[in-house]
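PROTEIN FOLDING TASK:
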Amino acid sequence: MNETSPRNSRITEANGLDSVLLLDAVNLVLEEAARCGASASEAAASLSHGLSVTVRMGKIETVEHTRDRGLAITVYFGERTGSASTSDYSAPSVQQTVQAACSIARFTEEDPCHGLADPDRLATEFPDLDLDHPWPLTVDEGKELALTCEQAALDHDTRIGNSEGAAVASHQGCEVYGNSHGFRGMSRKTRHEISCSVIGKSNGSMQRDYWYSTSRKREDLEDASKIGRTAGARTVRRLGARKLETCQVPILFEAPVASSLLAHFLGAISGSALYRKASFLLDHLGKPVFPDFVRIHEQPLLQRAMGSAVFDSEGVATNPRDIVSGGVLEGYVLGSYSARRLGLQTTGNAGGVHNLTIDPGKEDLPGLIRNLGQGLLVTELIGFGVNSVTGDYSRGAAGFWVQNGEIQFPVEEVTVAGNLKEMFQSITAIGCDVDTKRNIRCGSILVEGLTVAGQ
């Protein structure tokens, strides 16, 4: 199981990760905090291990074994709070860390918004989301897969003569969260990845690009050779890139970079930005933010997805919900603290969103390119020129110039500029080429009338 009922006194099925050790550490924290007089307490204990193998130009470059563990503790004395952490699960260390958190609490300011999540919001059902698929990856297997991936990229075209490397990685983690409301919850997840990045050269021009595949289950990864060929193809198509004259044209953000637009949207509707009044979407609840065909929603209970979770980092149950419906902002992204600051209820987003999804349209990327007519297809964004207060947007970009619905030539060293509030309203299409490799699930996005600053 990936999630275990908080009523269980023991958590079993360790699968190589000692979840009983984690539960015992959490229980010890809560007992010690109560003994020290804390009015409430919570703790999250984690244990993870993994292997990563990287090759470059046909030779192993790095082999990294990781094994990490941590115990994060928060105690409350009325409206005061203190936090401390340790990687030592021995009883004396845990007790000393709790005492340190209690000591810190004495020096903090009172804040009526501090505290555990409300008991009636905590998860009580724990469906198996199929997130735990250990891969007993060996160094030899990782090496062979990485070599296969890199060689496929190098063989794709004679203009590819150098490599930044190919990597194969497998990671498994387990976490137990508990609090003094009686909640105990465990999650166990795996993440596996194959990636490749190569460099092409032609007529004095050099370009690099990459591709990767990531999944919870080894069998769901793309074939290593296919990943390499895709990395090679994406690199070669960028050779001979040109600059553009400054112009105002439609912009098509390819799916892997389009998700960054939703990331900026999330930042603007997150509790911390809202209660600090540092958001360009302040006081927009119930107002149109996107065109009426746009729906953005969370899907926390998807099987085997990268952002799935039964409960958030406070133990609050997650639920599917619309954040934007018919283009209208229906909800914020809140944990318990930010919700109290705003006079609202937590949305189960302590620690972030869960499989945020923008509903796709009917056109794939080639179809969107045809619809673009004349403009810029952006395949890479550079820098972080975004003002979260005003929504002003300016980022370096690379991609392809499109004319008459067809790609004409690669483009580099341009800047895409606009205002996010206006950009969201100017979305004209969303692709069905949904990128599911991240917690934000998004197809390519076509936006009208942005400024491309070039020569």
Summary: The first strand starts at residue 3 and ends at 4. The CA atoms of residues 183 and 430 lie 41 Å apart.
